[in-house]
Specification:
By secondary structure, the protein is an alpha+beta fold. Helix content is about 15%, strand content about 25%. The chain has two domains: about 60 residues, Type Iii Antifreeze Protein Isoform Hplc 12 (Alpha-Beta Complex), CATH 3.90.1210; about 100 residues, no CATH class. β4 and β5 form a beta hairpin. It is elongated and about 65 Å long.
Length: about 170
């Protein structure tokens, strides 16, 4: 890489340079395949392009066994800005209409592993004509337990997820 690029950037030939290195990673992506591919994570200058840096099959290969890779829209924009690759999230679906009653959110899945952030390249127009700050998509790509895939995909159709950062150590 010739410069720092945020997650979601689509690689161009100008972003990369071919270098001879003493100890290259075992799997580097050929230049022709890397051009046009979106980055799954932000990268620094000089970083070699390996499959797990790119959105696509490499990203799914980076997921732990018995998980599936899904996009997660987070409801809290502050949390969306704080979340980093490698973080674990518990995902909740908040009640859509409580009818004035205090209801608990429903835990949809726990320990979702953040594999990538989907950051906007530039400000997007909002519903009311304003703009959202760059990077504020609120979407992360996460690995969730395979048995929770149906619950996650069904709940994501209802509303963005409420999430909490967790530490499983």
């Amino acid at each position: 890489m010739t410069g720092t690029l945020p997650a979601g950037s689509v690689l161009t030939a100008a972003d990369m340079e071919v270098r001879q290195v003493r100890d290259p990673p075992p799997e580097t992506v050929p230049l022709a395949e890397a051009v046009g591919a979106p980055l799954a994570i932000g990268v620094s200058p000089g970083m070699p392009v390996v499959p797990t840096l790119l959105v696509g099959p490499g990203l799914a290969a980076a997921a732990p066994a018995d998980t599936v890779v899904v996009p997660i829209r987070l409801a809290d924009p502050a949390l969306a800005q704080l979340v980093r690759v490698g973080d674990l999230l518990d995902l909740y679906l908040a009640p859509v209409d409580s009818g004035g009653q205090v209801l608990e959110s429903e835990l949809i899945t726990s320990g979702a592993l953040v594999l990538s952030r989907v950051d906007a390249q530039e400000a997007d127009a909002s519903l009311f004509g304003g703009t959202a700050p760059a990077g504020a998509t609120g979407v992360v790509i996460a690995a969730v337990a395979a048995q929770d895939a149906a619950r996650v995909s069904g709940a994501s159709a209802v509303a963005p997820f409420r999430a909490v950062l967790v530490d499983r150590d």
